[in-house]
What does this fold into?
Amino acid sequence: MKRTRQQGYSLIELMIATSLAVITGLVALQVASNFQLRRVVTGGKNDSVLSAAVSLYSIERDLRMAGSGLLSSDGLLCKSGINLQYSGVVVRNGEAQSLVKIVDGGTGPDTIEYLRSDVQGSSSGAPANIIDAMGSADAALHVDSVDGLKTGDLYLAASSDGNKICTLYQMSSDPTADVNTFKLPHVSDNTALYNPASMEVFTTPMVYEVGDKVINLGRQPFSAFSVACKKIVAVAGDTSPAGTDTPSACELVRYSPIETAPFFGTGLAVASEIIDLQAQYGVAAVGSQSINEWVDATGATWQAPTVADFSRIKAIRVAIVARGEYDAALVSPEKLTLWSEPPTGQVLVASKLERTLTTEDRHYRYQVLTTIVPLVNVIQAGL
It folds into this structure.
């Protein structure tokens, strides 16, 4: 009888093959898990780095231009103060107006307010000259050029030496041509909210004369950066923390502090997941251009600086904190250091600023970026 050999695998061979397949699968799964973890970590970190960088760039760009259009060879045009009304409320009644102001947020984020002409391109020419004395404080201003002014724009009347109180007006309609000159209307209505019904609302209503100046400030010369947040509403099935433990969604907002407050989803959202903004004044001694002190916007002097104090502020130090994605593990330390020592080359008293993180906060990764912004126009004007 012919014996036929059975074809196939033995039990031992099958067990070995199965074991190898299981081991290979486990290794592949571990590699995939590690890759996914690195992707999430890297992605979250990259997002926070990008948000912080965009925020810092935007702040630095605008603060460097603080005072643009408001300085002359004799210094600050509005050093004697400014008359300013908005929507029926007197905002400045001849008081001084700083070019950059930090509003201390206490335990929360700070706010940085600044003043500059935001006119761009061919419309940003030299100030117009007033060629006729105003008959009264409510009269239209008669100038030799319009400097790009159009309906809705804001403009400032000032003396070239800064010895008159400035007045802020809003174009209620386009300039009126008068031979080769122009008249600038500033009628009070619901579309020109910066124009009072009468200049008598101010203690010292101003009448401007031949040789005084008109500066085009554009649409939003009074601007501010701040952090705005809202609470996330927890939804059943979310993997993120629920209820009162759910972190807020935050963003850096640019807005007009005269017209509105910083709210999440309003104004111009500069970058998302920015949870903190801290700032300090870089202060020089009287008559000097060299910073010898960094101070918070607190206390008798720096919470409300005087005109003399304005001229001592040469730079702003800014720290931005951006938040990455949520992680199930605790991935951040108990404290974030925003700044810990004076800038290189400056002999200053060291100041340390830290942000304490709650246990819930530590489930996120953070990116902290800092910069020093010189107030170029202030320095160049020798204030």
